[in-house]
TrEMBL record:
Domain DSBA-like thioredoxin residue range list: 13-198
Active site: 13 (nucleophile)
Protein name as catalogued: 2-hydroxychromene-2-carboxylate isomerase
A Pfam cross-reference name: DSBA
Record-linked CDD domains: DsbA_HCCA_Iso (cd03022)
The gene coding this protein: nsaD_1
GO biological process: glutathione metabolic process; naphthalene catabolic process
UniProt KW keywords: Isomerase
Amino acid sequence: MSLTCDYFVAPPSPYVYMGQARFVELARRYDVQIQLRPMDIGRIFAGSGGLPLAKRAPQRQAYRLVELARWSRYLGVPLNLEPKYFPVAGDPAARLIVAAQLAHGTDKALALTAAISTALWAEERNIADEATLQAIADSLSLDGASLLAASKTAGVQAAYDANTDDAERAGVFGAPWFVFDGQPYWGQDRLDFLERAFADAQGARR
C-alpha cells in the first residue's frame, strides 16, 4: 500500500516557495505520493480567523520580515523580502496549477508551482498577470496558452473549490499545509517532523 501526503498550497506564500523543494525531495526519498491541493487561501483565512498581510498588526508584519530573512539565509534560498508584486491575487496561478495537474499530472504541476513561486519571490514578476503565467508555463515546455484557457473552465474551478473544501474540513489555516497519516503539519518549518513521520511509516511498512 502506497503512502500519500496531502499538500495544500497557496502560490503567493513565501513559505511554499522556501519549503517545496525540500518537501518534494523528502517525499521522493521515502516513496510518498504527493496529493497536490492548490487552495483559495482567502477563503481559508476568512473561515479560520486569519488576516491578509495588510490587515495584520504592525508588530506582526515587522516580525514576519525578520523571519523571512532568517529562513532565507539559513536555507540559502534567494528571496526579495518585499517583492514588487506582493500582495498579489493567488487564484489565477492556483487555477493554472490545477489545470496543469489535470492535464499533465502532479510532477508537472509541482514544477509549475515552484516556477510560479520563484517568479514572485526571486524574479520580481507578477503572478496574477496572464502573460506572465503563460510565459512561466511555456518555460517548462507546457502549452501556456492552452493551460491558461483551461484554467478558466468550470472543471478547473470545481477542482479548485473541492481542494478548498477539503482544506476547510482538514482544519487548514495557512500554507503550506501537509496532512500525513491523519496528522496535520503547518509550514515549511515543520518538515523535520514530517520527515520523522515518513520514516516511521516507511519502517512500519517493511
